[in-house]
Design brief:
single chain, 131 residues, alpha+beta, four-stranded antiparallel β-sheet, 4 strands
Length: 131
């Protein structure tokens, strides 16, 4: 079994409405986002998934929706949390077209700080093979 990970980062602001504490105010983070795919069989180039393909897909999504955005507005959600971003990114990655049935998206991990992260593995209806 092979497990492939790709990591990226973005800077963005958010806040949590009706939260008792500092996070109720607009503030920013240098978020880190890591995606994990797994599979047993390699393609004809001996790759599970081309790193460049995943990195390009992530770069487009980060640029369009996450990097230097107010995440509450950009994602149309009053309470954007690391959990929310992980689930949102997981669902977006389901659309990484052209992955064969030999590759499965395992999880998306979002780091809000160097010490705190959350991983999302998909719900029962999302545990399908990518592609």
């Amino acid at each position: 079994m092979f497990r492939l990970k790709v990591k990226t980062h973005f800077d963005a602001a958010h806040h949590i409405r009706d939260y008792e504490g500092k996070c109720s105010r607009v503030h920013g983070h240098r978020w880190e986002l890591e995606v994990v795919f797994e599979g047993t069989y390699l393609d004809d180039k001996n790759m599970l998934v081309d790193f460049r393909r995943v990195k390009d897909f992530l770069a487009r999504g980060v640029e369009c929706y996450l990097d230097h955005w107010d995440l509450n507005a950009a994602l149309d959600e009053p309470n954007v949390t690391a959990e929310f971003i992980a689930r949102w990114a997981y669902k977006e990655l389901q659309d990484l077209g052209g992955l064969s049935s030999r590759v499965r998206l395992v999880c998306v991990t979002v780091w809000e700080s160097p010490e705190c992260c959350v991983s999302y593995y998909g719900g029962a209806d999302e545990r399908r093979l990518a592609g």
